[in-house]
Specification:
Helix content: 25-40%
CATH topology: Amidase signature (AS) enzymes
Order of helices and strands: EHEEHEHEHHHHEEEHEEH
Strand content: 15-25%
Number of domains: 1
Distance between the termini: 19 Å
Shape: globular
CATH class: Alpha Beta
CATH superfamily: Amidase signature (AS) domain
Strand order of the largest sheet: 1-3-2-9-10-6-4-5
Number of helices: 9
Length: about 325
């Protein structure tokens, strides 16, 4: 879509894999609330080791150029499926009405530039800060800077992935094809996890869910950057230094996966562009099952700061 080669696309999002590419390509990426879009056979097919995990984290969602297109896709995708025990009825949302020109004035917006613990590229901070200014100054939202109140759950997130994976099957695949697999995946699958690491991860998840619930009892949406850095060169897992801080090469994804831990709806929309012309994503997280409000805020921002007519420069 970013290059105009297709109108819409689907992605799977277990920790941000719909919203992250949207942010880096100047697109809309929507992860609906857990259960809105049934997930089968992905993450639920016990016959294949690589398609058997992430059940409590995985979502399927649209990647589009506009919020209206994302909502239109949801009108087709959403609804229960007997093969997905987490799927839910969706009669509470009229997806075709979500992008309508509704006001968001007075909406209570919690804004965190770094969740209190993430290193963030200065250009990302600038662009997202200006986007938040649009929400406040032009759309009439009541914006307050916050720190959500949980510590970095990255290690717990990794443990939950491992706990929901067919480790026996994946280790068998590594024995056969390990030289062709991602070194990060091989290391994660071969690690000798303990029961305590898995149960500790569940306790961290419960803490994030509870603290997020407290936050969202005061605010309508939580707004952050989608990624801690703009797009980087191909061939690396991620930068190991962000804004002068040494970080793990996965730290740049730290804004998105908390919404997978909680199952809340979240969307990335183009916030603006760096001085080098790279897109930056604005991440909007809503209350439990408040998908319509999340897309409504995204649509309002889109009207105030339109992006769909911006296309990448032809390098030829």
């Amino acid at each position: 879509m970013a290059a105009g080669l297709g109108p819409v696309a689907l992605g799977s999002d277990g920790g941000g894999s719909v919203r992250v590419p949207a942010a880096h390509c100047g697109l809309v990426g929507f992860k609906a609330a857990m259960g809105r879009v049934p997930v089968w056979p992905g993450c639920r097919d016990e016959r294949f080791a690589g398609v058997s995990g992430w059940e409590s984290l995985e979502h399927i969602g649209p990647l589009t150029r506009t919020v209206a297109d994302a909502a239109l896709m949801m009108s087709v995708l959403a609804g229960p499926d007997p093969r997905d025990r987490h799927s839910i009825p969706c009669g509470d949302v009229d997806w075709t009405e979500v992008p309508a020109d509704g006001g968001v004035a007075g909406l209570r917006v919690a804004y965190s530039a770094d969740l209190g613990y993430l290193a963030v590229d200065p250009e990302v901070r600038r662009v997202v800060g200006e986007a938040v200014g649009v929400l406040e100054k032009y759309l009439g939202c009541r914006v307050e800077a916050v720190e959500p109140g949980w510590g970095n759950p990255a290690e717990a997130f990794a443990a939950l992935i491992a706990a929901e994976t067919d480790l026996t099957g994946m280790r068998r695949l590594i024995g056969e094809h390990g030289a062709r697999m991602s070194p990060h995946l091989v290391t994660m699958m071969q690690r000798r996890w303990t029961a305590e690491e898995f149960t500790d991860a569940n306790m961290v998840r419960k803490a994030v869910v509870n603290r997020m619930g407290c936050l969202m009892s005061t605010y309508d949406v939580l707004v952050t950057p989608t990624t801690a850095v703009p797009a980087f060169e191909v061939g690396i897992q991620g930068p190991t230094v962000i804004d002068g801080r040494k970080v793990p090469d996965t730290a740049w994804t730290g804004f998105t996966f908390p919404a997978n831990l909680t199952g809340q709806p979240a969307v990335s929309v183009p916030a603006g562009w760096t001085r080098d012309g790279l897109p930056v994503g604005l991440h909007i997280v809503g209350r439990h099952l408040a998908d319509a409000q999340v897309l409504g805020v995204a649509a309002a921002f889109e009207r105030a700061a339109p992006w769909a007519d911006r296309w990448p420069t032809d390098p030829t």
